[in-house]
Amino acid sequence: MSKVWRYGDHVDTDVIIPARYLNIADFKELSEHAMEDIDTSFAANVQAGDIMVAGRNFGCGSSREHAPIVLQQKGIKCIIADSFARIFYRNAINIGLPALEIGKEVEKIEAGDELTVDLAKGEINIVNKGITIHTNPLPEFVQKIADAGGLINFVKGAQ
Amino acid sequence: MGMTMTQKILAKHSGHDCVSVGDLLISQVDLILANDITGPPAIDEFDKIGKPVFDKNKIALVPDHFSPCKDIKSAEMCKHLRDFARQHEIKNYFEVGRMGIEHALLPDAGLIAPGEIIIGADSHTCTYGALNAMATGVGQTDVGAAMASGTTWFKVPKAIKVVLAGKKPRFVQGKDIILTIIGKIGVDGARYQSLEFCGEGISELTMADRFTICNMAIEAGGKNGIFPVDEKTIAFLQERGVTRSWQAVEPDADAEYDSILNIALDELVPVVAYPHLPENTHPAAESNNIIIDQSVIGSCTNGRLEDLAQAAEVLKGRKVHPHVRCIIIPATQEIYKKAMALGYIDIFIDAGAAVSTPTCGPCLGGYMGILAHGERAISTTNRNFRGRMGHVDSEVYLASPYTAAASAVLGHIADPREVLK
Predict the structure, then answer these.
(1) Which of A4, A151, B151, B258 pairs as cysteine with A94 (C-beta 3.0–4.6 A)?
(2) Contact indicator for B214, B301 with CB cutoff of 8 Å
């Protein structure tokens, strides 16, 4: 089961990873600053396998792929949101980090909830509440990128 | 069913006669951009593929964000970019001294033409829609893959038709128009969509206005913004030495739009976007109680010659308020030289402003004007997210160069008409 890190609407890439740290080329070192401008407890306490849940337009702003990368580095295995900003969504898919867009259903998920996610079935279970949320599967083309483990492997495979 | 301008460009680059909303396409790209922050990781991804670059003439690398390098770490990243450019003989690598802010530089260098597809590992790549190109920001993995393949994947977007009508009031600029639009539709109002500009009001807009408007399409969540071609576009392209053949696109009469937004230019006023979202738009005239510590005039949004002309008009014969640091950054070396020839740089320095070599610096809180705890800036840049220009408890207010310069003089946020009667 995965612990939920819950945030609101319009979480931008400047707070996911502030630009002042983007001179750090090492992603592991960079990830120690993930979310610190809105949640100083995140980087120190997040556990591998945790899930991030947010409201509308998650990841808006800069195209920096460092944003999904630092969340992946910190062990976030999946991001669930009402909606995603398009570049962030694209970047998450390209690095093999699942991003599930579930609309208003996201309001059922609160901080501290325990989730299980079945990506193949498109099922999110809020275990402590006994609620199951059904999501749309990824589009076939996007699923192919995900199955390849990201865009680079997908492109290599196409050669 | 007819197509929008964006859909036509996507269709042509994907080998289709017609595309529909939601189609997933593999498209040829005409230019690929990366900078000193996104370029190094893009190169690392490119290297994993193990292929040569698809075309050394169709890649632009611009070290502009933390450059001229602010510290050793950024110097290492710029070196990574430079070494790659030399190794692969990248034609459009722009070194410090010839470098400018990427989204002002590439159109001025004649690298963008109507009907082309440009992807960049920078969200403000959408700027080039002003020239009737389909241009959009992507991530560094996308750029790494495209540098090898010359292609990328797109989902055909829905569209919002933005109809501009009427005459633009004297102190209303492109920035006021796009901030007003974002204020109306919100920071996700155009999410996954293209903003397709049309209407007779377009003829009112300078090319600088159009670049500013398309630049901030992303701040409404848009995939891209795009203008049709008119005589001003053609004059711009001729002046920039664009001699290759290009094909402009116009929307079909029966193109499908998800929504239509009518903007009456006559009714617009100078506006300011309050922290911490670009949608928090208010009239500048109603913001007089907001004291500022800094005014930044520059960036890919508003660092063009027309923008500096507005600042010079306000600052000529006036002084920056004693409690304000005013930082003015011409977006390219060419703009800097023209501003010098026109006397703007003297005006800025005589007014007590600092003038810098081109850099994105303060816009993203990199360097060259970082805010301390509790400080407040008015800025012609594009984002006012929490901590964007420095300390997490600092504030950024977005505005036009007229408004930012007038505020620098008065020490508080001001409508430009308070200074230029």
Answers:
(1) A151
(2) no
